[in-house]
Amino acid sequence: MEAFRRLYPSEFYRKFLVHDIRPDGRALYKIRKTTISVGSVSSADGSAFVKIGNTSMVAGISVELGSVPIPAKGEEMPPDGHVVVNLELLPLCSAKYKPGKPSEDAQVMGEYLNDIAKTLIDFSSIAIKQKSETEQGEQKAKWVWFLNTSIYCINHDGNIFDASLIALIAALKDVKLPVIEFGEDGEVFAGEEKFSLKLLHVPTSLTFGIIDDYILADPTSEEETLFNGTITVISNDKDQFCGLYKTGGTPLSQESLRECMDRAKTRGVHVRSLISKKLDQTDPKQRKNLMSP
Amino acid sequence: MATRKDNRSSNQLRSISSEQGVLVRADGSCRFSQGNSQVMVAIYGPMEVQRQTKELIDRAYIEVIYKPRSGIASPADKEKEKYIKNCVEAAILSTLHPRTEISIVVQVLNEDGSIVSTAVNAACLALIDAGIPMKNMIAATTIAYLDGDLILDPTEKEEKESSSIFTFAIHSQSDGTLAVRTKGFFSEDEFNHASEASQGACERVFSFLRRSLEKKYAE
């Protein structure tokens, strides 16, 4: 049977799909067990570790300050902060990825994550209050926040994007920013007080794959090799959708797309309750480090 | 229906024009424009695979290279490449040319909104010009929501002010969405309306593609 699975993977899968089930026993729309743990990386300012089935992603945020020049009068002011996401898919997680420049998957998914990241935080509400002006009475530059986020895949068993997005959100909710204080000579340092970020909205995603006429939710990496198309739907807690990506292959009808969107919304409710449960009970003394086996 | 800055109605596409066989050295080419957005696509192939690791034993390897008007390609351009590749891959009969590469180079000549759908339409015509065997044609349109109104084929200015932008691709032989990518926030209803509108808009693009092919091969 193992030989049949390796030699004719599509045929092997179809035998199960006809009965509305998958080889790992899941129904077509069943999503694997999702676990989230925050604060696992003590050297980062905010971190999260997310597992969906065997797929594991770690997100770490380091908070930095940067000085950006203030443009001449009349030009748009630069934003008061940035969230920059770097998704790393290393050879560690899967045989698909080779060392060297980032793979296409990493760049494309990183782009989707960055698009979402830009909408998450209202930096003007936490803008760094500049100290009093220089002698000329005008500010030449201002300090802005840089939240550099790195998301690493530790184990690739399909559906990287969903896990990455949950990790990003959880890490951002975990991060604590210091209150910035200015010394007498204008030097900047981090004060004792820390505050958490308030996210403008909480997006979650659900990825589906299409084989023939079947739509499977939360694919494993074996299933991903058999698909002729994937759909990723990103929805948030404000009853909006912030992304829908369907890659080619078989055309999908309106009803199927609608069904995918509904399932993504249901999934969103579940994931958001998971995240808030995890963040409410997280206390440094009680943190269980999910990264140790 | 509010009129837009260029006096179009909300479901009016900009004027489309195309020219095939423009590049002498390429196997196929097409210069395509929707309004002021203009794209040049060159097709090379089926040819020997440039990078041995990419060779596929049972089909042609399809590569899309998207070059913005100025500067080097960024991850955002990589995402556009992937979208264009997904659209055309379904249409090309790649199993007829195993162990070869079909290279689709998209060069943006002028960017004025709806650039990705312009690129997909141009790629379709260029592939036909190159004689690459295809199952069907593909057409794409961009739809945006601006101040709550649905508009087709937005300009760059309109895109900047929109709350959401959708790029739909449809193929000529069946209904339903072949590929879609979105930017911004939208509700389920907005998505459904945009999806319906895209069917009609893509039909218009198909009729343009057919007319330009008829004109070319009638000579």
DSSP, total strands of chain B: 9
Relative strand content of chain B: 25-35%
C-alpha end-to-end distance of chain B: 42 Å
- The helix content of chain A, as a percent range, equals 25-40%
Order of helices and strands of chain B: EEEEHEHEEHEEH
Biggest sheet: strand arrangement of chain A: 1-2-3-5-4
How is the biggest beta sheet of chain A arranged?
A: 5 strands, mixed
Overall pLDDT of chain B: 91
Residue fraction in strands of chain A: 25-35%
SSE ordering of chain A: HHEEEEHEHEEEEHEEH
Based on CA atoms alone, the radius of gyration of chain A comes out at: 22 Å
What general outline of chain B do the C-alpha atoms trace? globular
Poorly predicted regions of chain A: 285-293
Evaluate the radius of gyration of chain B. 17 Å
From the structure provided, what is the oligomeric state, counting identical versus distinct chains? Answer: heterodimer
The structural class of chain B is alpha+beta
The percentage helix of chain B is 25-40%
The counted number of beta strands of chain A is 11
Number of helices of chain A: 6
- Report mean pLDDT of chain A, rounded to a whole number: 86
* Low-confidence residue ranges of chain B: none
Q: What would a concise description of this structure say?
A:
The complex is a heterodimer of chains A (293) and B (219). Chain A has 293 residues and is of the alpha+beta class.
Protein described:
The complex is a heterodimer of chains A (293) and B (219). With 293 residues, chain A is α+β, with helices and mostly antiparallel strands. Helices cover 26% and strands 31% of the residues of chain A. In chain A, strands 1-2-3-5-4 form a 5-stranded mixed sheet. A 4-stranded antiparallel sheet of chain A has the order 9-8-10-11. Chain A has a two-stranded antiparallel ribbon with strand order 6-7. In chain A, a hairpin with a 7-residue loop joins strand 1 and strand 2. By secondary structure, chain B is of the alpha+beta class. Chain B is built from 4 helices and 9 strands. Chain B has helices at 75-91, 115-130, 156-161, 188-218, and strands at 16-20, 28-34, 37-48, 61-67, 100-110, 138-146, 149-152, 164-171, 179-184. The longest helix of chain B has 31 residues, at 188-218. The termini of chain B are far apart.
